Amino acid sequence: MAGVLAKSPKLREGKQLKMEERPLATRSDTKITLFDRTFDYGQLPELMGFHLRRASIVDFSTFSEEIGDRAITPLRYSALEVIGANPGLRQTQLAAILGLSKPAATLAIDFWEARDCLARRRIPEDGRARGIHLTPEGQRTLGELRRQVALHDQALTASLSEPELRALHSALRKIIESGGGAM
Amino acid sequence: MAGVLAKSPKLREGKQLKMEERPLATRSDTKITLFDRTFDYGQLPELMGFHLRRASIVDFSTFSEEIGDRAITPLRYSALEVIGANPGLRQTQLAAILGLSKPAATLAIDFWEARDCLARRRIPEDGRARGIHLTPEGQRTLGELRRQVALHDQALTASLSEPELRALHSALRKIIESGGGAM
DNA sequence: TATTGTTATACTCTATAACTATA
DNA sequence: TATAGTTATAGAGTATAACAATA
């Protein structure tokens, strides 16, 4: 996992820089102190994309660790979740829902099938397609995963109040919806 | 660019599911319609991490395209920005600031050096280290990039009001700061 | 002996293309 | 001829380890 931020920021305030032109940046995130020296992030702290990426990395980088199984990534969990919610889903449908290529969907299914969590079943109406179903072991695993993931997500946002949570959710939805065409 | 979301969601409302247990999900993002059929995202829409990731993908997937140069990624832009803001930065320092491995920093610098945008200079105090500096071409490129990136970021958040922007920024900061130890 | 930066190498993730079996 | 799914292959991007030069 990598990129675009320091491992342990230890942010410290620095001298103010044209703050009137930087509505979003606050004194404490324009600078970073490492090696006993202070460095400047330039205009990065003014960019919402920069913070979105960093918040997403916080989520991602703690996910597998908190789940307690390095192999279970957000993508693999998402696949199991969607299959559980849509029994008999076809692989092309899973790929479309998660925005994956066909081979990527195949691999995600292979992963869970190897753990006896789901099974591919022939579909009478179309011999080419397979319906994907949770096994009893998959039901159990998904149930436990859902709990752990929900806890992980609550921990991620533990520092936010209910109104802050709603505001964050609303803002993210607007960004996602406005970018729908480009995705 | 991939993963964990449909390319063109075309979200539609579906029947309500235990909404009292799903404070964050709203009717319009629990379902997705593809192939003339409605599928369920399961508990994914209840997870802030899911939306963070999707918003980040919207940002990332339009970045290089809007900049007009597929080779200029957020990471490479960030590297140039940080070097511009900290003239004479050493490569290990760049790596630490951006959370990169040494080889990754070397490659980012190689990229911009090949475009005559920056130069490695020997440091008198330490013959092992190199200070990284923008060239005149690098100054020009960075100036233009900063403008384009700022426009890109404004487009990303164009659907948000000023108070919404501040709320989003504040919430992301809290998530990033609370996860600081794990990053 | 430790550190800066480069090179070698390998691993993961992803995609496109080619293939098979059905339709 | 087209589609569902698999396999083959290749390209990014990343990391660790080994190396050269310097401290």
UniProtKB/TrEMBL annotation, chains A, B:
Domain HTH marR-type intervals: 44-177
GO biological process, one term: response to stress
InterPro entries registered for this protein in UniProt: HTH_MarR-typ, MarR/SlyA-like, WH-like_DNA-bd_sf, WH_DNA-bd_sf
TM segment ranges: none
Top-level taxon of origin: Bacteria
Gene3D superfamilies per UniProt: Winged helix-like DNA-binding domain superfamily/Winged helix DNA-binding domain
GO molecular function: DNA-binding transcription factor activity
Protein name (database record): MarR family transcriptional regulator
Species of the source: Aurantiacibacter xanthus
